[in-house]
Amino acid sequence: MDRIRVATLNIWNRMGPWEERLVAIREEVGRVQPDILGLQEVLVLPEHDFDQAKAIAEGFGYHIAFGRAPDAASYGMGNAVLSRWPIARTLVFGLPGTDEHRCLVLAEIDAPLGKVRCFSTHLNWRFDQSDVRQLQVQCIARFVRANAPLEDYPPIVVGDFNAEPDSDEIRFMRGLSALGGRSVHFADGFAVAGGGSPGVTFSKKNPYAALLREPDRRIDYVWVRGGDDRFRGEPLSARVCFDQPVGEAWPSDHFGVVAELRV
Predict the structure, then answer these.
(1) Which end is more exposed in the chain, N or C (fewer Cβ atoms within 10 Å of the end residue's Cβ)?
(2) Cross-strand partners of 240
(3) pTM given for the model
(4) Distance of CA 82 to CAs 35, 191, 224, Å?
(5) Closest CA to 60 of 88, 30, 81
(6) Phi, psi torsion values for 147, nearest 5 degrees
(7) Which pLDDT belongs to residue 73?
(8) CATH number, domain at 9?
(9) Which DSSP category does 154 fall into?
(10) How many structural domains compose the chain?
(11) Dihedral sign, CA of 232, 237, 242, 246?
């Protein structure tokens, strides 16, 4: 085993033709075969026997971590991590901001290479809320630092950041600028190993996204904390995925990203 495959997708909760979209999502999961899959906008409603993470994972042998914002116990939507290997622990951290109930979910995975910590998150969406997202990425950096020892495999952060690569919040993640007097460095899997492609994940090519008349852009990411002296976590390849329909149904209003990371 010389690499692990990590993917992410905002599944658009139950919007649109969910049953048909579920088929399209599962078909792409079967093609991509990620070892770890981060999901956002996941609805889990036990009282209605409705669990989107479970429905996507069914038959693939994945273990599931799910969490929603701690300040919104009755809010059904959250983030999930699906793992090919057992999940030893799940933690959920609330993120600051407005009433969008954003959170960061940690799955501590017992992988063949040792503990792998994968975080799945979803930041505020509005174009005029870069200030909120800047607060959120600072919190993410603190939570990762506090829960991912430097001696272990570098932590992975995936999700829908609702921000383009040249935004201040993404520049902070990449180590290109400081926020709040602090700086960090996470490798952007697509920027490092995407072959120079723009890697658009919210596209008018997708009819679900086209309804919003927003510009094409890359807002979904696979990150891995940089600075490992053994080169663990180095992005080796990255591409857009979940970007084709099955029949008339597209998997989501977002495309996903899949990256292979060095073990």
Answers:
(1) N
(2) 257
(3) 0.97
(4) 8, 24, 17
(5) 30
(6) -120, 10
(7) 67
(8) 3.60.10.10
(9) P
(10) 1
(11) negative
